[in-house]
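Cross-posted from the bioinformatics board.
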Amino acid sequence: MAKNKFEFEAPYLLLESKLDELRKLSVQLNTDFSAEIANIEKRLDQMREERYQHLTPWEQVLLARDVDRPTTKDYIKLLCSDFIELHGDRLYGDDPAIIGGIGIIDGRAVTVVGHQKGRDTKENINNNFGMPRPEGYRKAHRLLLEAEKFGRPVLTFINTPGADPGMGAEERGQAWAISEMLLCLSSLRVPVVSVVTGEGGSGGALALSVADRIIMLSNTVFSVASPETCASILLRDSKRADEMAASLKINAKSLYDMGIVDEVIEEPPRQYLLESTAFVQTLENSIKRHLDELCSLDVSELVELRYRRFRKIGKFNE
Amino acid sequence: MAKNKFEFEAPYLLLESKLDELRKLSVQLNTDFSAEIANIEKRLDQMREERYQHLTPWEQVLLARDVDRPTTKDYIKLLCSDFIELHGDRLYGDDPAIIGGIGIIDGRAVTVVGHQKGRDTKENINNNFGMPRPEGYRKAHRLLLEAEKFGRPVLTFINTPGADPGMGAEERGQAWAISEMLLCLSSLRVPVVSVVTGEGGSGGALALSVADRIIMLSNTVFSVASPETCASILLRDSKRADEMAASLKINAKSLYDMGIVDEVIEEPPRQYLLESTAFVQTLENSIKRHLDELCSLDVSELVELRYRRFRKIGKFNE
Amino acid sequence: MFNKKRGYIDLSNAKKNQAALDSEGNFSCPSCSAWISEAQKIQNNDFCPRCSYHFAVSAWERIHAICDENSFEEWDANVSSVNPLEFPGYEEKLAKAQEETGLIEGIVTGRGSIGGFDVVIGAMDSRFMMGSMGSVVGEKICHAMEKAIQYSLPCIIFCCSGGARMQEGMFSLIQMAKTSAAVGRLHEAGLLYISILTHPTTGGVTASFASLADIIIAETGALIGFTGPRVIQQTTGQILPPGFQRSEYLIKHGMVDLVQPRVEVRSLLIRLLNVHQGGNHG
Amino acid sequence: MFNKKRGYIDLSNAKKNQAALDSEGNFSCPSCSAWISEAQKIQNNDFCPRCSYHFAVSAWERIHAICDENSFEEWDANVSSVNPLEFPGYEEKLAKAQEETGLIEGIVTGRGSIGGFDVVIGAMDSRFMMGSMGSVVGEKICHAMEKAIQYSLPCIIFCCSGGARMQEGMFSLIQMAKTSAAVGRLHEAGLLYISILTHPTTGGVTASFASLADIIIAETGALIGFTGPRVIQQTTGQILPPGFQRSEYLIKHGMVDLVQPRVEVRSLLIRLLNVHQGGNHG
Ligand SMILES: [Zn+2]
Ligand SMILES: [Zn+2]
């Protein structure tokens, strides 16, 4: 079972390094293999693209968790012409694992809230690896109510392993903080669009995802619990997480087919996402289009549609 | 400057003990002074009643703080045919310095919230001497919103030296918790009646007093800050608190004359309040009358009147 | 099929039925294996007298103990689970749970009366796949709340759950959002909603409808939280203090309104329903 | 009377005016008596470079520093205090404060523009009886908020206060309720309300309108709290940790949205007003 994206990237990386050696040799030998090398490189790119089209669910989990993925702050910088971060729950603290504030997207005032993972170990320790504590949900809750006051649409970015599993979070009522968020979002009188940008982990992710539209990037996942947890509980073997990743149907494509998410945006293979202009343009357009559509609705219709959107999810026999 | 009510009660207590001695002597001497003793007792009662009619402001402060005064729990027991205490702010803790719950008064569901002092040292330490912490205001806030949801009138009992002056209360945003209460009560869409049953101390008391009607018992006070604090700041001598008690006009009668409170209910002199059937009846009737009046108003009128009630308080030249 | 059991689980009548109970025989505590009688179990508020194990109460036992006699009318009795993800082994687990519990799914919902007050009532059953919430549990709760709105009735839910039904994946997680949204509608309709958190209430149920009630009652000694104690200990390496995540801990930390022993929950509910209506019974 | 001062307190233009400032002479820090120039004071964001004392900014300095030139129109300029309790010595104190500050009372309110955005603005003056809130301060704040509603304008208040004006007794305490109620009306009207907590903001002002804003900005290094540090120390005997009740402590504890140095408050306000309107300037 692969531990990170580099394991399934290894053959391509190896081939790349061999080509580099070949290039150096050709200089030493004063010969020219450039046509051949270019050819191999082209085929390598094709193979890799093909490979990325057929990632296993577990490989998608690894990509969803990849530390190189852009964070909420990166997306905010990309999308907002101005953004002001606001802090604190006005009750207890300011949780760096959820950030929020107000910004302008395409000439529209928007409240943005999202999980914030760190870009390195130090930042991740500070941000609790993007696992919110009750303060985080309560800050988000406060900002949502402000968005409602001002009729501002809300954009959320989802990328968290899940809620914080510590004693302090329990002590300060993590379950209460999450349920209040679910309740608040489910009847918020402004449009809400969510973008899953990495891991959608359990209740900690759902708390920011009760939206009119949920967009997933193609290599992200959303899961009731981590594949490791499911494997540990259902199979009594957390090492069989890859099996669970498949059984749980947690990748973007499956969730789109199940009607749980509304749109999947294709990620370019192995490129830093925000460097792909096509990807960035598609994401921007998608968010704008959803906001345009939702903002044109009557508020009570909007809230009714959101209720029905979630109300109908679930499979059973009657 | 007297330290407690027993100082100004001393002469009467002394006379009472002398009469006791006289009674014993009369038995020993086999004579009968009962007529004379009864006469003296009658005059003693008159003198005392007269004395209680002319208490100094400072003496009223002492009576307002008297540990023998009934607490919120006593009034609840007196007024409610059933009462269920509810706990917790759903955020951080449960503050015993403010209690709250739902009960029935005269066939009407009512939400009751009040400061809870202890009846002895142990209880007082547990209840922080009736000084609320942020959790207390936030519990009250939650119960007020529930009262609004169910259209239940609210009854509050005020008896606190003031907000908790500790580090923890500051850390958890005491000022924020108090202001949220002021905001909440000022636009709450159900009737609110407050009864000052002892000390109304500063912001900690005001937080429960933004009411449609404020009733004060005759020997209670309501003050912007304790006379000791005022003396310490303005006169640089906290021992001159008695002067401040007079200058600040903090007793029930003065506040009634200033239009800050709506009714003063006379306390019987030196009797345990709840044993005086006349007092109890007057209090009960008053609360019921105010609730009847307020419940008959249209909600938007009620809220508008409450706004105006506070809006007009203040003296200035234009 | 439930009438047979009715005799000994009407807890409010526990004492007068005691003689009858002893004759029903003994059974062994699942935790410490002590042999105890039904009477002892009831007398001890469903805790094992030896190891304090908190005996589970089935959904039907709960409903019979709480509702007035013959007042309960079940809704959605035949709503049953499918295997939406074709998750390996899920159908077998469902079949086993149904066989062991006599239930079709992990919650019973319907309409009944408590001390004469009409209510919508739901009771989860921890024996059914650990009281996990899947599509059916979510659907039945939402439907019950919508009917509470339709009939303008208070809504009372007895919660007990190990969390989400993992075998239904995201369908299960979304039930948290769905039931919370239904609570939102109850609130908008101005209806009373009381939840009773019983042992154990954890995971997605705690983080959705269970903690959104107007009044939250925790049963004495119940384990209540989001993350279970084992996971906290494994993940953080912290030793959990005694009483952590128990009802008494929760009320101290402001999360629940009342802690009540199981045998007194019915009378508390009657008082709450009565006070809520200003004592104007009916 | 205020034009003379205008030159050196337009902090946003501090740098280009620096040459002019040095000629205005030196003065002594009220805390450590260090002699410093206006330029040094401004460069150091109004902290004393030696002892970190936070220099007070008068209400008019504040308004001129924040509002666009000549945009400010004062309201209620002549509302003045009376002595409602006939409190001994109050009139003398008022007279002295008026003489020393050139103000009639401890707050200036009115209408102006900030970066072209029309706003209602209020600025308290800590030199006027320690920025205490009595009837006049409460009245002017309420009136300004009501006018913000009338004109549909955002409302911005610079707070600094030692607490309630004790000499007005309960009239003073009630201003907390009155101003909070006015904030309630602002919220109902859906208007933006920003408060800026400057050094020091304590007591009844913190526990009313100051902490009820949609967005709360704390000036760098400001002391902000309900109970002042001296009283906490005296009452509890606790030694207060360094930085206790300072802006940086408050943002860590979740109480304020932003901590900003004084010289950057104007540009932050312009950004907030701009974002609030979706960048649709005007
Ligand atoms: Zn046992
Ligand atoms: Zn200095």
